[in-house]
Write a structure and sequence with these properties.
It is built from 5 helices and 2 strands; from the N terminus they run ββααααα. It is mainly alpha-helical. The protein starts with 6 loop residues before the first strand and ends with a helix.
Length: 162
C-alpha cells in the first residue's frame, strides 16, 4: 500500500508524488497509530504489551526518520543552518528513537507507559514542526522536479527493502 503512494495512476498515465506528499501520508498513518496508543495505553495490563507497542512504533519510525534525514532534510540543511536549526531535526529524530528504545529497558508497567507516551508526545511535536515549517519550506525552495525525484527515490528504496 505505501509503495503505491509515490505513484498516482490516472487514465493509464501516472503522476509521481512529491516527497512532501509521501511524508505527509506517512505522518497521517503515524497520527492514527499515536491516537490508538494514547487510547489503549491507560488500559494495558502488562509490561510486555507496552513494550510490544513501542517496538511497533520503533520499527516504523526508524525508516521514516532515515528517509527524512537522507532525502529530505539533507538538501535543506543550508537553509536550516541559516535559521540556526541545522542539528535540530536530526537531534529530534535521535531523541525519539532513544526514548522508544528506553521503553524496552523499563522495569515497571508504569514507567514503560510514561516513557512510551513521552515518545509519542515528542513525535507529535516533531511532526507538527515538519508539517508547519519544513514541508512548506521545501515546497518553496526545492523545484517541483526535485520533489518528484525524491518521491521516486523513496519508492525505489521501499522496493529494495521488500
Amino acid at each position: 500500500m505505501a509503495e503505491r503512494a509515490a505513484v498516482r495512476y490516472w487514465n493509464d498515465n501516472f503522476f509521481i508524488m512529491k516527497i512532501t506528499d509521501v511524508l505527509r501520508a506517512e505522518h497521517a498513518v503515524f497520527h492514527n497509530l499515536f491516537d490508538h496508543i494514547e487510547a489503549v495505553a491507560p488500559r494495558l495490563k502488562t509490561l510486555a504489551e507496552v513494550k510490544a507497542l513501542a517496538a511497533v512504533v520503533e520499527k516504523v519510525h526508524a525508516p521514516h526518520s532515515q528517509t527524512e534525514d537522507d532525502l529530505f532534510i539533507e538538501p535543506l540543511e543550508p537553509y536550516f543552518d541559516q535559521m540556526g536549526q541545522q542539528e535540530t531535526f536530526h537531534a529530534e529524530h535521535e531523541h525519539i528513537e532513544a526514548t522508544l528504545a528506553t521503553v524496552q529497558k523499563a522495569r515497571t508497567l508504569r514507567d514503560a507507559k510514561k516513557i512510551l507516551l513521552n515518545a509519542i508526545a515528542a513525535s507529535r511535536k516533531h511532526f507538527d514542526k515538519e508539517e508547519r515549517i519544513v514541508f512548506p519550506l521545501a515546497e518553496r525552495i526545492l523545484k517541483a522536479k526535485t520533489l518528484n525525484e525524491l518521491g521516486m527515490e523513496w519508492l525505489s528504496r521501499r522496493e529494495v527493502e521488500k
